[in-house]
Amino acid sequence: MQRVRQRQPQAFDRVLSSMCTEPHPRAHEAAVEFLATNPGDPATYQTVADLETDAVDQLGEIAGLDDAYGYVASGGTEANIQAVHAARNLADGAQTTGGDTPNIVAPTSVHFSVTKAAEMLGVELRTVPVDDDYRADLDAVSAAVDDDTLLVIGVAGSTEYGRVDPIPAMTDLAHDADARMHVDASWGGFILPFTDYEWSFADAPIDSMAIDPHKFGQAAVPAGGLLARDRETVDALAVDTPYLETTSQATLTGTRSGAGVAGAVAAMDELWPAGYRQQYHDQQANAEFLAEEFVDRGINVVEPTLPLVTASVSPATFEALRDEEWRIARTADGDLRIVCMPHVSRASLEAFLADLDRVRS
Ligand code: 0PR
């Protein structure tokens, strides 16, 4: 305990590039209460298992799905891996007996968890270019899909630029090729309901989705979400569990965090929909404020269509801001990337801009 007492966790006021945030106080409370429970053993930990059913129903409501199947995963990585896993297990003979390696198609903007999935599951990941606005290029998706395609993945709120791929058109391309469609809304899922984007189960007949309570949902880590339109998706993931009272388990991990499940339900109870709507508007306003301030200083930005701003600053400026203890990150192209998560205040952005002016002068 001594070693922990001597340390403080990272304070959030200087964290500007994380996709995690401070849990809502109710989520914190619920997470502590359910810390020792394991939804991986629902026959023993019945209460948290019931809460998980509530969580999936609630996530389904947010994502436009009436009868949702799925579970609370450890995060977007697990949900993406399991979407590929289900697609591989469900593939019919045409895709698996031809002798060719099955493939999945996704834009270059897809999160690196999909690279992990492809590697683990022995499928080929075909990444296709994005257009000038960082969205999946439909012609390139169409050209990449073939008889061996198991799954097309679209991103709804991309990690680097917060872009939403053309989900309905990608779904058509996938289904025309007898492939499945997965949407990665890990980051965007709790803000997109308040926008005009077409991203959800209500907008297109997508098959599965990643949507993470532990990002914009303000739940405690770890709480991701895997959602599926049909029971067969979850069944395709299930293995027999001979010595447990329940007969099968569909999750990638065994013992899981009851804190994650309870925290997610508490946060959604508290915030859906009004609290999340307010948070989206506040953070979108923060992102637009920040983008304008950059432009006023002659710094190029990528327009924040969701609450995420990227800006071209020199490596020296970036390092100097890190030295000022700002927790910031860069895109693969070297642009400064700031994610306006619920903990980001206007005051902390103003303090950041003041430091930016000082280190540049
Ligand atoms: N899909 C998308 C679109 C994501 O942005 C991320 C995470 C994932 C999937 C994977 O989610 P998990 O990390 O929950 O498995 N994107 C962030 C990133 O890679 C993750 C992150 C979060 C990074 C907090 C830093 C941080 O402090 O940048």
How would you summarize the topology of this molecule?
Elements: H1 2-5, H2 25-33, H3 46-62, E1 69-73, H4 76-90, H5 93-96, E2 103-107, H6 113-121, E3 124-128, H7 138-144, E4 149-155, H8 167-176, E5 180-184, E6 208-210, E7 224-228, H9 231-235, E8 239-240, E9 248-249, H10 258-271, H11 274-296, E10 301-302, E11 308-311, H12 315-323, E12 329-330, E13 336-339, H13 346-360
Parallel strand pairs: 2-3, 2-4, 4-5, 5-6
Antiparallel strand pairs: 1-7, 6-7, 8-9, 10-11, 11-13, 12-13
Helix pairs in contact: 2-10, 3-10, 4-6
The structure holds ligand 0PR.
Ligand 0PR is lined by residues 18-20, 75-77, 80, 111, 113, 155, 159, 184, 186-187, 212, 224.
What does this structure look like?
With 361 residues, the protein is of the alpha/beta class. The chain has 2 domains: 25-271, 3-Layer(aba) Sandwich (Aspartate Aminotransferase, domain 2); 274-360, Aspartate Aminotransferase, domain 1 (Alpha-Beta Complex), CATH 3.90.1150.10. Helix content is 39%, strand content 14%. The chain has 13 helices and 13 strands. It has helices at 2-5, 25-33, 46-62, 76-90, 93-96, 113-121, 138-144, 167-176, 231-235, 258-271, 274-296, 315-323, 346-360, and strands at residues 69-73, 103-107, 124-128, 149-155, 180-184, 208-210, 224-228, 239-240, 248-249, 301-302, 308-311, 329-330, 336-339. It has a 7-stranded mixed sheet, with helices on both faces. Strands 10-11-13-12 form a 4-stranded antiparallel sheet, with helices on one face. Strand 10 (301-302) and strand 11 (308-311) form a beta hairpin. The protein is globular, with a radius of gyration of 21 Å. The termini are far apart. The model has no long low-confidence stretch (mean pLDDT 96). Its EC number is 4.1.1.11. Pathway: Cofactor biosynthesis; coenzyme A biosynthesis. The modification N6-(pyridoxal phosphate)lysine is found at residue 215. It holds the Pfam family Pyridoxal_deC. This is Probable L-aspartate decarboxylase.
